[in-house]
Amino acid sequence: MADDRNQTARPSLSRQLLPAVHGLLARPLSSYYLLIASAGLLLLIGLTMVFSATSVKAYAANGNAFSAISSQAVYALLGLIAFWICQRLPALTLRALGKYVLGGAVVLLAFQNLVVMIKHIDVAHPVAKVGPVSVSLLSLAMGGVSVQPSELAKLGMVLWGADVIARKGVSLGHWKELAMPLFPVIGLLFVLVGYNDVGTMLVLLALIVGLLWAAGVRLRVFGALGVLGLTGVGLLIAAASRGAGSGAEGAENYRVARLTAFLTPLDKCDLSDVCYQLIQGRSAIFEGGWFGVGLGKGALKWGWVPEAENDFIYAIVAEELGVVGCSVVLALFSVLAFTGFRIARRSADPFRRLAAAAITTWLVAQAVINMGGVVGLLPITGLPLPFISAGGSALIVAMAAIGMLASFARAEPDAARALNARPTPRWVRLVWAPLPPVPPPRRPGQPREAPVSAGKDRR
Question: What does it do (predicted)?
Fold first, then answer.
């Protein structure tokens, strides 16, 4: 009887209403094309909005409205090169690179924090010189080239963490396997990153949670990690009153003010200080309405919205493109999230599965924190909106991460078989990407998609 019921079971409602969508998603390379389309459109929107948000100020400053967008276009080109390189690298190479990327990030972060402490870098004195290197709270610059070590830390944690967890396998359920070397490195990164940038530390925490969740770690580990993470955030916030990070000893704790401003009623908030950015961002959203005022026509970006091209660019999207434009951005990030987790679910290799889940969690969590802060649902943390905000290191590293996801999508079992069944010409493989290795044929009864969890249960 059970077999008869299964044979006569009706297809799901989504399959009845959207057969064409299910047909497209069933194609072997659908994950790859969805990823390329969503990330490419977000990058295009970002370049457009950076130009719209900076053209007026750039023209007033130096008579060249294209100065800011020219720099962003160069970063986008470098990001595309990073994408191209990363989608060509095999998993073994990525695993080998992880410890070097993470080690380099730790060294740069330690040097940056040391200079910040010695030189007393803060809002009043934002930059200090150490030989040819210019050090600020978030970046290092030398010879016109600027890099944010915290962005490299995210990428290094993805590669190194996925490699370590994939090697441990099912033994990861034991505390001693987590204790060495994973937790000490995580704690070190939290301190080095969070000393100056609590927002990036929260994204790093989300990335690690996604990595451990994809590995099937037991729920009690997440409870302990959450307690330790919240304790660390609290200590770093409290340390700002004693001069840690960009704080000044004896001054008002700016981290507490920024993290609690969104909970304070507007009539009781200091509109000339911590609430100014929040108020102007909401005004921009209100002015946009449903369809926006049009590209380049927004007035609130003319110096009235602080950091309009960076962490508050979503407010400019709302002002100039309205609710419709914001919905398009949300939809593209939703497609990116769906595709990234789909790649993780369908990857047969544990390293690819874990890295794909971590990258997707990182990009989506950062987007949610940024957009939530702009609309007033979350604290303002100063995080950029991936692919859309102006910036160099963040865009290049995000595009490199998308390149890795593209490589993992091509290595899905069905995609790899399809690509090898009808191989592209040799010159295309040399210019674009080599063929992925052919996985072994599925055994009868073997599921099409590899399970995400590597553990036995989550209790």
Answer: Peptidoglycan polymerase that is essential for cell division.
Q: By C-alpha distance, which of 213, 169, 185 is closest to 102?
A: 185
Structural domain that includes position 236 = 67-431
Please state, in angstroms and as integers, the Cα–Cα distance from residue 101 to each residue in 105, 423, 453, following that order: 6, 33, 26
Residue 315 belongs to a domain? yes
Is the pLDDT confidence value at 325 over 80?
Answer: yes
> At CA 310, angle to CA 74 and CA 397, rounded to 5?
50
**In which order are the strands placed within the sheet that holds 145-147?**
127-130, 133-136, 140-142, 145-147
Determine contact, residues 423/79, Cβ cutoff 8 Å: no
Mark residue 289 as left, alpha or beta (left: phi above 0; alpha: psi -120 to 50; beta: remaining): left
Closest CA to 150 of 116, 183, 115, 199: 199
Q: Do 151 and 108 touch, CB atoms closer than 8 A?
A: no
Token representation of residue 154: 């995210």
How many angstroms separate the CA atoms of 172 and 165, rounded? 7
Q: Is 272 exposed, middle or buried (0-12, 13-18, 19+ CB in 10 A)?
A: exposed
How far is Cα 227 from Cα 398, in angstroms, rounded to an integer?
29
Local structure of 302: helix, strand or coil? coil
Question: Would you say how long the chain is, in residues?
Answer: 459
Q: What is the CA radius of gyration of the chain?
A: 23
C-beta neighbour count of 59 within 10 angstroms = 14
- Within-domain flag for 184: yes
Q: What are phi and psi of 438, to 5 degrees?
A: -80, 125
- 273 vs 265: CA distance, rounded Å: 14
Measured distance CA(182)–CA(363) in Å, rounded: 22
Query: What tokens does 239 get?
Result: 């340390």
pTM check: above 0.70: yes
**Exposed/middle/buried for residue 379 (C-beta within 10 Å: 0-12, 13-18, 19+):** buried
Whole-number percent of the chain with pLDDT over 90:
32
What confidence category does residue 451 fall into, taking pLDDT thresholds of 50, 70 and 90? very low
Query: Does position 89 have pLDDT exceeding 80, yes or no?
Result: yes
**Domain count along the chain:** 1
352: nearest Cα among 454, 456, 446: 454
CA proximity to 204, closest of 280, 145, 286, 148: 148
DSSP bridge pairs for 129 = 134
Range in 47-56, 136-145, 437-446 with the lowest mean pLDDT: 437-446
In a domain, 438, yes or no: no
**Cα 111 to chain center, whole Å?**
24
Q: How far apart are CA 7 and CA 2, in angstroms?
A: 9
